[in-house]
Structures are given as C-alpha cells and as structure tokens.
Amino acid sequence: DQQVKQNSPSLSVQEGRISILNCDYTNSMFDYFLWYKKYPAEGPTFLISISSIKDKNEDGRFTVFLNKSAKHLSLHIVPSQPGDSAVYFCAASAPRASNTGKLIFGQGTTLQVKP
Amino acid sequence: DSGVTQTPKHLITATGQRVTLRCSPRSGDLSVYWYQQSLDQGLQFLIQYYNGEERAKGNILERFSAQQFPDLHSELNLSSLELGDSALYFCASSTRAGPTEKLFFGSGTQLSVL
User: Fold this and answer.
1) A101 at the B interface (CB within 8 A)?
2) DSSP β-bridge partners for residue A87
3) pLDDT tens, B5-63?
4) I want to staple A34 with a disulfide (CB 3.0 to 4.6 A). Which of A49, B46, B96, B102 is the partner?
5) What pLDDT digit, counting tens, does each position of A66-96 carry?
6) HEC string of B40-91?
7) A51 contacts in B (CB within 8 Å)?
8) Mind telling me how many Å the CA of A82 is from chain B's nearest CA?
9) How far apart are CA A87 and CA A42, in angstroms?
10) Which residue of A has its CA nearest to B97?
11) Residue A13 DSSP SS3
C-alpha cells in the first residue's frame, strides 16, 4: 500500500520558469511533510518541510503548499535553475503516536531544468 | 557532506551469500535508519534504531537483520542473497527519534547480486 504517491515520474521545464511537483497521501494521520532532493551518486538531502497546521511554507525559491482536505501537497520552485535538476522525493513523517522519526517516501519525480 | 558515512560504496556478490553494510551516523545523532531503493522505486523503510534499541520496523525481510552498537554505528546484515536484493541501501541518522526529525542520509551502498 503506497501511502505517499508521486504520480509524475518526470518533469521538464525551461530555466527561469516555475517547476511544480505534486504529491498525494492517503493516511490522514500524517501531520508533517518533507521534500528531499537527490543528485546522482549522493544520498537524499533535506529541502523544505511543512507542518499540517500550516498551508504554506516558503524558503527562498522553494515553497511547499499543503491541502489537507485533498491530502495533497506540492513543491514550487521559482525561478527554476539548471542546478535544480535532480530527483525530488516527497515524504511524510510517521504519525506522532508511533514515536518514531521514520519517513514514508513517495517514488520520486525526476526534474530536468533546461537552459 | 551529510556527515553520515556508509561503507562500502559498492558491493558485488553472488546469490546465496551474506554481506554486511556499515553506517556511521553524524556525530551526536542517536537514531539510525535503513532504507532500500530498488530500480524505479522510492525509498522503502527497513528498520530504525535509537540509542542501541530497535524503534521501528518496516518491510524488512527475515533474511535481513540489523543492529546498533554502543558507539552508535550500525550494521545491516543481508543473508541468503537473491537477485532481487540488488538495490541501493541508504543509511540515515537523526538527532532523536521524534516525528519532526530531519533525516540526514549517507551516499548509499550499491549492492549487486549476480
């Protein structure tokens, strides 16, 4: 059962334009979400997070939006740069009651930003 | 550099064999996580240790086992290896084990079972 889903395996955008990566989840007990970025031959690195008490969190060119009623979150990158080309993973933190820091990841979306 | 060290970077072995993957967490981190990434798959959670004790278990096969030692490094043991075990295995660490912890990942061990 895939609790976190990224339905778009890949996305290609032009440099300077907006990149929008989407993620859906099924478990309403999730209340903390993160985005990780992964370059080839490296491990994933933390990008940005959002708590369920918010609907938006912004950090420079990166903004994450959360729609709890739709169980949907998205990552916006504006403006997109060639260095943003990577695999982006959406992740949900396990419910608080589980008392673990484990993350449940989506399958990832490969972003290509063309110069 | 995340501060998480995984060795070896690459491992090639045959079916039926046993291997050990090693992970040193970031200095001061008490929690270690193991993830498996197969081809075209996301990161699948295997197991978490916190300060030497198992904290959470995912879809880890019975042929796989892990432990965290007193110096906080961790080892993932994979036995009776099958072709389908070929994957990238990541270790991650975090300061504690709570639900808002950021995980810091190592660069992974690429396991190829031939």
Assistant:
1) yes
2) A38, A110
3) 999 999 999 999 999 999 999 999 999 999 999 876 789 999 999 999 999 999 899 99
4) A49
5) 999 999 999 999 999 999 999 999 999 877 7
6) CCCEEEEEEEECCEEEEECCCCCCEEEEECCCCCEEEEECCCCHHHCEEEEE
7) 100
8) 21
9) 11
10) A101
11) strand
